[in-house]
Amino acid sequence: MPQTIAVLDFGSQYTQVIARRIRECKVYSKIYHHSVSAAQLRADGVIGIILSGGPSSVFAKGAPMPDRAIFTLGVPVLGVCYGIQLMGKLLGGRVGRSTHREYGHGILKVKKPGRLFAGLPRTLRVWNSHGDRLIQLPPGFAAIGTTENSEFAAIEDRARDFYGIQFHPEVFHSERGVEVYKNFLLGVCGAKQDWTTKDFIKHAVEDIRRTVGKSHVILGLSGGVDSSVAAALIHRAIGKQLTCVFVDNGLLRAGERAQVESLYARNFKINLRVEDASELFLRRLKGVTDPERKRKIIGRTFVAVFEQSLKSVGRAAHAEFLAQGTLYPDVIESVAIAGNPAALIKSHHNVGGLPARMKLKLLEPLRELFKDEVRAVGAALGLPREVVWRQPFPGPGLGVRVAGAITPARLDVLRRADAILQEEMMASGWYWKVWQSFCVFLPVKSVGVIGDERNYADVIALRIVESLDAMTADWTRLPYDLLQKISSRITNEVRGVSRVVLDISSKPPATIEWE
Ligand code: XMP
User: Were 395 and a residue from 289, 296, 348, 503 both cysteine, which residue would form a disulfide, CB within 3.0 to 4.6 Å?
Assistant: First the structure.
């Protein structure tokens, strides 16, 4: 059992971010329900406790409370935001109700660095998000930091190693916040920095084995990073007790299905079932030009095909679990505030309802990880760079990249042009530097000339963007020579294309995809 830092979750949206910051310090942590008993924490060999923030007021009826005995375990405790109010309330201080919440930036003045702020500047920009605040220190405590709104923005009880902070060091906007955690973990708790990706894998493998037992798991493989890493991880844990289902919707890029078959079935020896549903998808999409209708048809058809496949594979294998490559940001998305477009992005992948309908339990071994951590896990499991660093590809695939009506001929032209673009992006190294690079088939014809002949043919747009999170994006300034090479290769090698254009729109106002 590794040395464990317990993060008690009082419902903050940042609890997982705290866990992530702890992993960044290479220390093992575990998130517990806020009501976990002190006895359990002792049994788990916990060497430090962090009380997360939370949306409640400590005065609210039913406000989440920890087991008071956690303060008698003899291990250091750090209360963050709601956590500091709890310490104030439970350890004999006084907390004042606030009529309004304090959000956003503030300046923390460090009065006494002590162990928590060791090595940090005396003023720090910090991120606040709280309602109540401490108005009288509990016995044994001293204030070590103040803000404009609070005399007790950071407090400590050196004798018991209890610390409280009003702000959120885990969020990006808090200056040098990771170092505050590092000081607590290493300086106060004496944690060893020995928690690595390999340990995560070992732990996850044991966990999956324990959960699954002798039963069988099915996973929908899309070829994207998340489902690929989930497949490799679950396969490492339970081998042939895993079956992956890959749906060929006829809207894949050139060679994609073959790559999936070769990597997972031949290389990893994973049970792989490929559902060729391309005819069904293309039949249902025939003549449809409205982007939203296309997306709905593709989404619905995907769920139907996948469900059918689950039924037959599941019955044959007596599957009890449906695995998904859900990441922490997806968990946030699914509870995202209404109107947040992020919540809609993956709607088609959301096979929500399906597991319950099929009486399957969900297995989500990556649900606490962030994307970069998932990539590290994938690399450690031996997935190739092309998979681990693959650019995002939308669920509806080329269906939203053939603008207008989808036909096999148009898909064919798009695939061939897109393969050239990818080849050149890879060869020049640009593929790894941009967020996405792809071709779009435009439903217009343009006049060209080949030899002496007039050539009235198709137009391909190049869409190459930089982005951090797909919420905003800018077009990539590729070198002219490279653009020229891509353009002339496409017009020379793809019959039926007479013109290549470059999309130079940012998001917003445009979106990354054309439909
Ligand atoms: P837009 O076009 O909205 O795309 O700027 C933002 C990011 O999301 C991807 N995308 C999708 N991903 N299912 C997905 O899994 C979808 O239906 C979908 N639509 C867009 C897009 O490629 C970009 O990375």
Answer: 348
